[in-house]
Every structure is written in C-alpha cells, then in structure tokens.
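pasting input
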Amino acid sequence: MSGRVAEAVAALRRLGPLGLAAALVLLVRPMDRRLEVARPAPRVVSAVPSLGDSLERGPLRGWQRAAEGWLLRFQPDHGAWLVGLWVADAGGPSTMRIEVASWLPGARLSGKAAASWGGAGPTVPEERLARRDWMLGGQTLVGALPAGGPLPRSEPSPLGLGNALLAGLLLVGALARRLEPEPAGLVWIGLMAVGCVGLAVLAPSLAPLGGRLYAPEVRPAVTVLAWSAGVVMLLGAVLFAAVTCQPSRSPTSLKLLPWGFLLGLAVGRHEPVVWIAELASLPVALPTFVALALVAGWLAGLAADGLGALLAPLGRLRSAALIACALLLIGGGGPWAGPGLAVVAAAASGRAGSSWMGLAAVAGLLTGSLASVCLWPASQWLAGAMTVVGMAVGLVIRLRAAGFDRAERVQSSG
Amino acid sequence: MSVAALGAAAWLVVGQGRRGGLEAELRARQALADVGHGAVGAAEVTAEGENERAWALERARPGRTGQALAAGEGGAYRWRVVFQGGGEVHVSDAGLLWSLRRPLPTAPGPDLYRPRSGAFLTAALARLVPDPESWRLEDVQTWEEEGCTWYRGWFVGDAGGLPRGWRREAEVEVAGSTTIAFSRHVQPLGIDVGVVEGRLEELAILRLPALAGVGLIVVAMLVTGVGAVVKHRPVAWVLGGSWALALVGLAAMSPDVATRWGGGILAIGAVMALLPAELRGGWIDGATGAAAGVALAATALGARLLALGAGAFVPLTPALPEHVSAWALLPQAWMPALIEEPILRGVLPAIARPVLGWWGAALLSVPVGALLHPLPTVPLAVGLLLEGAIQLALVVVARHGGVAAAVAARGVLESILRRPAYPLGWPWDAAAILGVIGGAVCLVAWRKR
C-alpha cells in the first residue's frame, strides 16, 4: 500500500465515528411534526382575503408564530390602525382583528349604537378626550373599539428561570474573564465585529421579527426606528463586552469542534428553536444566520466560562456535574435544551476552547432547527448547504488538528 | 458670574406658572350661588390638566394663542374646587366655568312641565356660559330618582374661539326645578389630537431602547465595580450612600416619582460609589454647573421658539405633573438629574474610555439621552434634535466639571423648563431657582476662603 493510500485510509478511520454519527443524526426523522412549518410568512399573505375597499390594510410589517399558525401584522404608513391576521398552517378560516387609534372619529359612538351593544337599560355617556365611553349598567363600552375576534397568542414564554440563569451565567462569565484574564487574540474581536456590525446593518430588515412592537397610533417607520435603535444598542453592548472580556487565544480542543456541530445538529432536529421559522421567513435569512451564529456562539462561550467558574470548586466532580447538567437538559430542557447543551458543551471544552465550541454547537443548532422546522424548499436547501459546509469545515479542522497532533508527537519524540 | 446666573434664572422663572388658582375659589362660590347654593366651609383647590388637549390646541394655533385657548375655552388647564360643606366646581385657568355639581337639596322644587323642560334647561345654561346664543339644545333625557324627576339637557355649541373642526358640548342636569350639575366638553379635531397622541405613543416606544441602554450601562458598571472591589481599588461608600439618601429624600416629596424610581435608587448609589474619583467633580464644579444650567435653559427656550418660528410644532407648555404640591417641582426636576447624569456622563465614560476615549464614550450618551425625554414635536426629528443638542451641551459641561457639574446643570435646566407647569407663586419660583441659589452660595463661600 502506498503512503498516500495509507494516509487516506488512516484519515477515513479517524473520521469514521464522526461520519457514522452524522449519518445517524441526519437519517433519524424528528419526532414532533407539530413544529413543522410549510410556508414562510410572506408567502401566506397571498392566500388571505383582502379587507375590501373600505379599509386599507397596508403592507405586511411583522410576523410571529402563534398556535400552529402565522400571526401577521399589517399597518398603513400613517399608523392609525393595525390589522392582525392569524392564518393556521392547516388552512381553514383565518382570524382577523383591527385595532384603531382612540382619536379616530369613528370612536365616538352615538347613544343608539351604544345601546345596540349593551341591550336595553340606561346608557350614560362619559366624555373623554376625542372619545366617548358609555356606561352600560355595570359595564363600560370604551370609545375605541377593536373590530374582529381575539387573536391567538404566541406560546407564553416558559423561559423565566432559563433567562435568569443565562443572564447570571453571562455575568459570571464576564467577571471570570475580567478577574482572571488569559492571553487573548484578535480573532474573536474580528469575528464579533463582523457579527455585530452585520446584524446592526441588517437591523431594519429584521424589523418583521419585532412584530409585537407595532401598535395603532405609532407609525411603522418609527417602530422600525425604535427596533433598530434597540438592536444597535444591544449589539454595541455585546461588541463592547467582546472587546473587554475576550476569550482565551489558544484553542486546545479543535478536533472536538465537529462533534459540537453534530451535537447542535442533533438537538436542533429533535428540540428545535421554534423562532427559526420567523427568522427563515426574512429575505436576508442567510447573512442573518451567519452573523447570529457568530454572536450567539460567543455568548454561549461567555456563559460557558461562567458555568465553568461556578463549577470550578468541585474539582474532579466538575465533569460529573457537567454530565448531570447535560442529562437534565436532554430529559426536561424543552426549548432550553439546545441553548443549554451548547453552553454545557462549551463549558466542557474549558476556557481555551469555549467560544469555538459554542460557535460550533450554535451553528449546528440553527442548522438542525432550520432543517426540521422550515419545510419550504429554499430553507431546506439552505439547511442542506449549511449542514454540508458545517461538516466540511469540521472535517477539515479535525484532519488539521490530527496533523498538528502528529507533528507535535514527532517533535517531542525527536 | 453667580449673580448674573441668579438674575437670569429669576428673569426666566418669576411670573411663569399657571394663573387663576387664587381666584378659583371666589369664582366657584359665585357659580354655586348662581344655581342657588351657598358654598359652606373651606375650599380645597387642586390643579388639573390634560397635556394632549393643551398640545393639540397649541398645534392647531401655534404659540401663545394656543396656550391661551388651552387655559380658556379649550379647558385643558383647570382648577378643581371642592367645598367642605358640599359642592364641586371646575374652573379653567382663565376663569371660565367648566363644570359644577351641587348637593341635591331636600326640596328641589316642583317637577317641570315636560314639554317646557327644554326651555328651562336652555335658560339654565344661559346663566352658566358666557355665550348662550352659540349653543343649541340637542336632546333631553328624563328619569325618576330620589323621589323627583331629573332632566338632562345635551347642548352642542359652535367652535367659538376654538380652531376650525373643534366642537363644544355641554350638559345641564336639573332635579325637580333646581339646577344640580353642569359640565362642558370639547371634542377636538381628530387630526389635531391624533398627531399629538401619536407622537406621545411613538416617543414611548422610542424610549424603550434608551431605557435598555441605560440598564446595560448600569450592568456593565456593576460588573466593572465588582472587579474594582476585588482588586481593592478605592470605593466611595459615603458618597454612594449619601447619593442614595438624597434620592430617597426627593422621592419622599412626590409619591408618583417615588413609585417610578424606587427600584433604581440602590443601584444608582452603588454606581456613584464605584465611579472613579477623577470623573466625579467637586462642589465648585457643581456651582459652575448650576450657572451653566441657566444658560442652557435660556438656549433651550430660545431654540424652541426658533423651531416654532421655522414652522415646526413644538409644545411650549411643559408636561403637567401628576401631583402639584408646594415642593413637587424639586423631585420632578432633580430626580432625572441625579439618576441619569451619573450614568450617562459618569459611568459610560468610566467603562468605555479605555476603548473609545473619553469623548467617544461621552458622545455615545447623546443618542441614549436624546431618546429619554424628547418633546412630541412635528416633525419628530426636531424634538430629537433639540434634546440631542441639550445632551451634547451637558457632555461639554461634564468634560469641564465632571458629573457634579452635569448634575447641577441638568437639575437647574429641568427646574426652569418645568416651572410653567406649576401654579404661579413664590414657593415654586424658589424651588425652581434653588439650585442656582445653592451654586451661588458655594461660589461665594469658595471665593471668601
């Protein structure tokens, strides 16, 4: 056997377990089909009826997932009303609600109109600024009436404790990096600059994700401005943190990165992050994914350093504690399983490799979630491309890391 | 310099404020007497108002004309007079009777002959409004209650002195044959009030990222501060504690302010304790800052008039406070100064200067501060620019005198700008220029030493 063939066989042998795991991850179908979304939000619009000539609906401003359907928000440029429309994934009639500014002339109901709402009985008007409320027995009929039915709300966030834990880990991580700084390089500052500046530039295009901010009386341009200002402010703070709390320079566990990507991919396919469909409906989905993976990966590394600092007093039991955390997240993490496992995997890599491992796991998580949630062709192609690129980068890194190891062994033996 | 600042502050403040408070009780007694009720006992007089309506009138009729309408026929600024022996009257700042309710007498007189009730209600209205010919009876309601017949007349008036498209309405209630209640309403043109309400809603949304920014700055300072404590760097516990105490004292003066800011007081105290000494400034810097605050206030008022003259809508009347007590102006003006200035002019440069330099870090505070308290202007950018210019000036003040100077300048500036929302009178004048007086005393004492 020639030397080259032998090297190739050795490389394949090294990559064998990784390839097997990748095949398993990709072949096993996700269990929960309820999270699957067949169409992106903008494409749903063409299927919903118009409101007729009497009311201008305005362009689609924002969207969010709610009760196995899309909740779409339309608003004209003047902002005097807001039209909410919920469309079920399974089809069927959509639900609509119009919220209007309280000062619109139509908000001053006559006594007869009020009586038709309240039935028989005395109706007493109460004059307010540009609006008339009616007292109907024990009830109040306010002047500014919404029209249409109640819209389903998005799932109430069960993330209160998770949010608090993550915020705490981030703070501890920042403290750990500031109090015990390790030699740092410029790579992560560059990557974070790309991620943060990229997301900041994309902020106006990401405004549909801030659909909850849209309100009657507020012009959509101002809502976009507020959203963009908030995003820029947050990213500025993250970039500042990236400059002042830098991760360690020497990545010691590069060969584990493909495993991190695979872990994220597996978790993403079985416990996907559900907001991925909202993100994938954006026209700028690809650059957003890349920038988001960089920023979220760095944050996962920061939280992992916090977790590592908290577990440091345990000494040798630290590994056992990390395994327990991982099992806990797999068993009952729910929507926190993906982000939580990314943090645990990054913490297992130690200070030296936490940010890289965080990036690999987060990239896998986003890719896996995209593949299992968004079923329309463009997203499936994107998920496929991201999987191939992620695995290829992982393989190259693994092979190069193995080469480095061999060279180090030769050097040390020589 | 301190004498000039004091003189300028007095010129800006004295004579400002809501009028009609002193005459309100007399006018209320007279109105109740007109409906046959002699008001008994002492009167409690409180100020009331609606910003949206006042600003909508200012938008429809720019400048002083709009302000006069808001104090008169617009009814945006009113005095509520409640008598111990019964009876409640609202009088506008200009002395116009706005509403009235008297106790139901034991013998309210014989019930009206129903077909004549309209004429009776119209005659009753004529005694309550100065221009009865402008009103027409629209509807009459009757019902039985308390053993007598009640009549409610609903009148609609023309626009009167109000802008075109606005409408006046009035209600008169009669029990038996005694006038019991009267109230008038103004229905603004939807566009006028819609623009103002819309701007207020928009500013509330724009304030969210600024508040998030302030929160992030405080968190960053606390992270940095823990590092400082661990590394045994000096921490000004006394200054932090006294800062928090000052905030508690101010909060106790105004219940609405206390509930709004109560949670942040400890964090602000901690922030002040951790602030590097070179950024704090001293007493003398504070005194100079107070003088700078007077100049800033004069410039801000001039800039508003300039923008108004250029065709923009800028409300000249400041936002009305929820409570008007004698010293309520102090917490309203100084709480933002004591809370926001240390964060924007102290903490931000403290944590960001290693990366951006002092100026770079301090200039970051300008957009954050500009989004916190802008005016509801048309176009909206004018309000943001005016507030941004004030923030920029405060950055310059902080560069020369540290946080102390910025706090003093901001406190004096807010005191002078907010003064017209309070009643006419020396207690509010004194509260408005208290910061300048304190600054002058400090400067004189320093000179003597």
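fyi The CA atoms of residues 36 and 373 of chain A lie 4 Å apart.
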